[in-house]
Amino acid sequence: MKFIEVLDAELKGIFGDLAIVLTILGGVILYSFLYPQPYAKQSVSALATSIVDYDKSDLSRDIIFSLDATPQIEITRRDFSEMDAKDALTRGEIKAIIVIPKDFKRDVTLQKSPTIAVGADSSYFLIYGGVLEGAMKSILTQGVKVKVASLLKRQVPIVSAKVEYQSFSLKSINLFNPNNSYTQYVVPAVFVLILQQTMLIGLGIFGGGINEKLKQNRVESYLLDTPIWVIYLARFIIFGVIFFIHMLFYFGFSFHYFEISRLAEVGDLLTLGVAFIFSVFSLGIFLGTLFNTREIATPAILLSSLPLVFSAGFVWPLEALPSWIIALSMLVPSTPAIQGFLGLNQMGAEFSAIISHYTLLWIQGVIYLSLALLIGAKRREYTISHTHHHS
Amino acid sequence: MLDALIGSALYEFKDIRGSWYKLLLLTLVPLSLAIVIISIFGGGVVHKMPIVLVDNDHSKLSRLFATHLDASPTMDISYRVTSAKEGIALVQSTKAYGLIIIPNGFEKGVMLHLQPQITAMLNTQYILIGKIITSDLTSIGMKSAAEIDYVQSLAHTQNSTASLATVAPIGIQITPFFNTYKNYFYFLVSALIPAIWQILIVITMLIAIGGMTKERRLGEFFKDRRYTLAKLIGLALPYTLIYTLWGIIFLLYLYSQWSFQGSFTVLIFALFLTVIAYQSVALLLFVTGFDYARSLSLGAVYTAPAFAFLGITFPIYSMNDFALAWRDILPLSHYLQIQISQANYGADIWLESGRLMILASFLVVLIPVVIRFKSYLSKEVL
């Protein structure tokens, strides 16, 4: 049989199966739209906050005014007691409470360091971070003003009073993802995983289906008489081309559309991309040789998604993971691929900085491909001899 | 009708006993997925993250600051280099999460009241890690500055209480309501395990009904073509019970460690409603084409992205309308609100009844399911 005929037969098999088409074409496009939606507004809006002001002085009003002016906080309520404010929190009307104690101004004047209490709904950790950041900044600024004023009272000249409020300053610079964008944080990594999972499911359904038909002795003849590697080569060309285009769509169009940074050199990105596609393809046909039916692939691969995301190191640091989880995650292409792609595209790393990830992808690919060739051939041999035996 | 329900439940139960695949999906799979997630976030705290120090001053004061850094719970000075460029390269290859640069002349600047600047460059691509380090860094910066301030102002006033107050004229007390801040274990695990299990619930329902279609057992199962709904409920029942039981075990595990303010009965009722809501939606996905593999693909689209929409890692009030609508069609988002409000605020039952009603309303999809099944069963030769 000619190679072109094998290619044609594989194409018919893949595109004749609606479940596969739905996954490797429909799914890939749908997910690229669906996943970024929660973060589409990019930034976190202001938090509804209640103020409990027991002091009611000009100083407390100043503080409230500056709190309200911070982007993270919007004062929507004023309560007379903490109880009232807590009730509002339970009803979900507000997400944070700030309490200014009684005699606040007096204590500041007496230099007794009174304390402002800041509380936020910690059930949602981003909310908590937002209030904290906003409140800290604004209260610290007020604190500095008070301090400068008190230094001035002691007749320290204004210039040195201003400087003296802190002996040195600390400036934080955001390296990469300068706006703390959630889209930029989550989407690039999740997209790598989507590419992997959809390709694995597609290959898994296809491989499982072939095994099913082998067993029932109703498999297309080319699958019985063509060398295994020729079949896999044809399949690699089909899936490789489809997913290469998907990858260009994701890293090109989608990233542009969702305003995600693309710092990588195109050549570097494609080099890593080819290794990634090869590695995922190899794992996919390997899994395909193991599955007995068409329907096992989707459940098996789907259930692995969330554990894979959270062991890839971008949400939760690798340093905090137990070593057996790291070891398991290294068996899957998405782990080195996510780290490699984030390095190149989001952090502008040189290719040499991600070379270990790149190498691991090739190693995985070669191992899985060898296993697939071995098991695929054995499985076919076994079935052929088995069915012959019966007939 | 009850006979039909019990009969089909027993039928499926027998099938489960004979199927390794279904047995695994009901026992080892949910257990091991939970163990993996729990192990990932095991510590719950981010501890000793590697950072790079660029000390261009080499003074007593710069060493003091470095000691403070190294003593912090979240940071570990794993690399010391001489240029920012080397430091950034280490961050780019994720060997470190940030670099701290102490400028040349730092100590001298402090002594001369020139307020020199320490620069921290943090990898904010990893938002969570970046946030943790930033907040720790801010407090270390304040502490070190205050320490130096204190010594200097002591020389001026010779009154230690008052000078301490001038150093920090206003204190901030941070109250995490519900006492869970800084421990990400609770945040993430309490939502992630339900998010994985909802995938499992939908999948097994599709396997139960899809497998039957594929093996051409539908005709046998719906023998007399009567009581379609009762038989479908019976088919789902073994899974409903076992997954609800898993849910209860999970909640007992979770709230044996974390405080729980509300009613466990309300929460378990919500859990049960969530399981049957998902099973109903799974049946709806199945009747779109009565095709096993294809319905699994639809189930994947429906359940896989759920976690992002829950509002746990990203707040609900910052989502756009589409995300909010998608969130609404996921039973899990309603369930999780109940879980959070029961655990944290102990919300009243009347406050919760609205959310419970929403969960129950998912059962409406059983109407088209039954209609589609009836017409399918009457037309097809099974």
Can you walk through the features of this model?
The complex is a heterodimer of chains A (391) and B (382). Chain A folds into two domains: 3-39 and 179-390; 47-164, abc type-2 transporter like domain (abc type-2 transporter like fold). Helices cover 65% and strands 8% of the residues of chain A. Chain A is an alpha/beta fold. Chain A is elongated. The model of chain A has no long low-confidence stretch (mean pLDDT 86). With 382 residues, chain B is of the alpha/beta class. Chain B has helices at residues 2-17, 20-26, 28-40, 60-71, 84-92, 106-111, 127-157, 160-167, 184-214, 218-221, 228-257, 264-287, 292-303, 306-309, 321-328, 331-345, 349-361, 366-379; strands spanning 49-55, 75-80, 98-102, 117-123, 171-177. In chain B, strands 2-1-3-4 form a four-stranded mixed β-sheet, sandwiched between helices. The radius of gyration of chain B is 29 Å and the shape is elongated. Classes of the chains: A alpha/beta (391), B alpha/beta (382). Chains A and B meet through helix 2, helix 4, strand 4, helix 6 and helix 7 of A and helix 3, helix 5, helix 6, strand 4 and helix 7 of B.
Radius of gyration of chain A, Cα only, in angstroms?
30 Å
Largest sheet of chain A: 4 strands, mixed
Largest interface: A-B, 116 and 125 residues
Which strand order spans the largest sheet of chain B, edge to edge or round the barrel? 2-1-3-4
What's the number of extended β-strand segments of chain A?
Answer: 5
Q: Would you identify the regions of chain A where 5 or more consecutive residues have pLDDT less than 50?
A: none
The whole-number mean of residue pLDDT values of chain A reads 86
Question: What is the chains' assembly state?
Answer: heterodimer
What share of residues are in beta strands of chain A?
Answer: 5-15%
Classification by helices and strands of chain A: alpha/beta
Form type of chain A:
elongated
End-to-end gap of chain B: 23 Å
Count of individual domains of chain A: 2
The domain count of chain B comes to 2
The total count of strands of chain B amounts to 5
Helix-strand makeup class of chain B: alpha/beta
Low-pLDDT segments of chain B: 162-166
